Structures are given as C-alpha cells and as structure tokens.
Amino acid sequence: MIHINSKQILIPLLAVLVGYSFLDCTGIQKKTKPSSHNVDFLIKQGKIAWNKRTDSLSLKRAEHFIGLAHVNRPDNFEVAVLYGRILYTRALFYETDPDLQDELFTQGYKICQSAVMSHSEFAPLYENAKGDSTSKLLSALEKAPKSVVSGLYWWIENFTRHINTKPAIERLNYRDLVEIIMFRILTLDPGYHYSGPYRFFGSLYTRIPGIELSQSETYFNQALSNHANYLGNAVHMAEFYHQKAGNREQFHKILKDVIKAESTEFPEVMVENLLYQKRAQYLLSREPLLFE
C-alpha cells in the first residue's frame, strides 16, 4: 500500500485518480482533466512502484499509475513503452491463465506499436514509403531510428508471446515483420536489454518450422557470452532451446542453477533476476508436462 503522509501529496493524488469534481449551479457534477503537474506525479509514482515490481501489489500500482498517465498523455513515447513493458511483466511472471496472458500481451504490443508509429522520427518514414500499407511498414522499419528501439523491442516481445501459441502457419505469416524489427534493433543497439536481440532470435528460431535448431543455440550462446549475469538469458534458453531440443537434463540443471544464483550480486539486474528466478521455479514445476 502507498502511504500518504501530507496533504500536498494526498490532494494531487486524489485529483489525478478521479479528476477534479465539482457541482455547477445546476447541481450537475463535472470533471476536469488532470493538470500537467498531476500527470507528472502519476508518472513518478508509477516509476517508484515499477522499481519494486518483484512485489505483485507494487506491479499493480505501477500498472495503474502508468496506465492513467498513458490515458492522459497518449503521445508520450516513454510512458507508452513503459506501460507495454509493465503489461508484459505482469503476463509473463504473475499470470498463469492463458487467455488473460494473451490479453495482456495483445494490449502491450498494440500500445508499443502505436507509440512507434506515431513517433516524430518514425512517422515520416512510414508516410514517405512507397507501396501498400504492409510494404510501407516494412520499408520504414528497415530504416527505423535508434530513438524508437525501446518501442520496437517491447512491441515485438509482446507480439511474439501473443503469437507463440498460434498455429505455425500464422506464426510464419509474421516472420518478415518480427525479423525486420529485431534485426534493426540488432544493428542499432545489439546490447539492448542485456542482449535482448540475441535472446529474441534464440527463442524465435525454435518456433519457426524449417529453421535449423542450431541457429537458436548460437544466438542464445551469444546472449550468455555478452550478459552472463542476466538470468533471463539462461531461463529463455532452457524454456525455448532445451525444451525444443528435448534436452531435459540441461533444462533442469540450468533452471536449478538460476534458482540457486545469488540474485543480489549484480545490483543493476537484481530486480530482473529475482523475477526470472520466479519464472525458473514455475517452469520446473511444469517440467513433467513439458517433456511428455
């Protein structure tokens, strides 16, 4: 629970949560939009809660505050991307119902996609591209600027989780889109989110028919080589590569090692590592089903 210690905090918090309400001379209740100051307050509180996301209640507070901020500042790129990442985190680490997970991933990718498409440095690329809407999009994505990397990344992380449970033919329909986006990120910022592009391709190439599984292993090994301290790289390799390859012994060992790791040893990835230790425990609990 968030503790409010002064009227200076309580008043703006209430204002941005429900809007300023008053009765006019006719007795009809009216609301005004939150002020810029109050939206800033929402963003600040949301980020504070986000930094404590290993606690489910803190993550819910982050989702609430940042969600409200996004409603009031839909054109704020940073807020939109953070909201998409919050939804991804909730779906992956806290929800187990497949339908709810899919709903969250879908909402997350749509928010991040919209943020990229409306970004001041990306929108002109799309508008000036030639061809139909699909050709224009792919052409613009091949030239996407570094300023939209975060939006691209969380768009496609959410999107691929959404389509991972779909039939193979549907996943194949989107191969060009996801590869173009992630190869662009790989070109602009290969280390983004602790070797996120390498980790992504390691996962992706276990889900596309006709791809040599060795390609997945190569990408995961690159991610681990670059960011061995980020436990997400090991967990994703177990979940995707070792499961697909039928390597139950390696799957089990990697996840056990993740759980035993000292999560506080590397402060810069401590929060993420704690979440991935939780994910490792969940995957181990499903090991018999995953290797039937």
Model description:
The chain is mainly alpha-helical and 292 residues long. It has a domain at 190-292: Serine Threonine Protein Phosphatase 5, Tetratricopeptide repeat (Alpha Horseshoe). The protein contains 16 helices and two strands. It has a two-stranded antiparallel ribbon with strand order 1-2. Helix 2 (36-50) runs antiparallel to helix 3 (56-72) and helix 13 runs parallel beside helix 15 (270-285). The model is unreliable at 1-31 (pLDDT under 50).
Which labels suit this protein?
292 residues; mainly alpha; 3% strand; disordered N terminus; Serine Threonine Protein Phosphatase 5, Tetratricopeptide repeat
Tally of helical segments? 16
Whole-angstrom Rg: 21 Å
Strand content: under 5%
- Termini separation: 42 Å
| Shape verdict | globular
CATH topology of the domain at 190-292: Serine Threonine Protein Phosphatase 5, Tetratricopeptide repeat
Task: Count all strands and give the number.
Answer: 2
Overall mean pLDDT score? 90
Order of helices and strands: HEEHHHHHHHHHHHHHHH
Strand order of the largest sheet: 1-2
List low-pLDDT spans.
1-31
Query: What portion of residues is helical?
Result: over 70%
Q: Major sheet: size, sense and barrel closure? A: 2 strands, antiparallel
What is the CATH first-level class name of the domain at 190-292? Answer: Mainly Alpha
Q: Quick one: CATH superfamily of the domain at 190-292?
A: TRAP transporter T-component
Based on the coordinates given, report the CATH architecture of the domain at 190-292: Alpha Horseshoe
Structural class: mainly alpha
